[in-house]
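seq:
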Amino acid sequence: MFPFEKLEVYKKAFASHQKVYTLLISNAKIPGYIKNQYGRASLSIMLNIAEGSGRVTNKDRRSFMINARGSVFECVAIIDFLYFQNEVPELYHQEIKSGYEEISKMLYAMIKNLE
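struct:
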C-alpha cells in the first residue's frame, strides 16, 4: 500500500471523484466542456494529494496540497453552477458540496502543518 492510500483526505477525495464520475457519465444534458472541466478538476484533487505525499520536502508537499485545495474550490464553483442550472438534484448538490468542504478543511490543516 502506498502512503497516500492511508490518508483520510485521499480516501474522501477518491470517494468524491467516484460520485463525480458517475454523474458525468450518466447525465447527457451536461455540456461536454463542463464535463471535461469538472472531471479534470475532481481528479486533480486526488492526484495532487497522491503526488504530494510522495514528495521529500515539506515545501513540495505543501505546494501539491495547495493545488489540491484549489481544485476543490473549482469543483464547488462548477457544482454550484450545475445545481442552479437544474442539472443536478438538490440532495446530490448538498452531499457533494459538504464533502468538498470537509476535504478543503483537511487540506487546509495539512497545509498549515507543512509550513
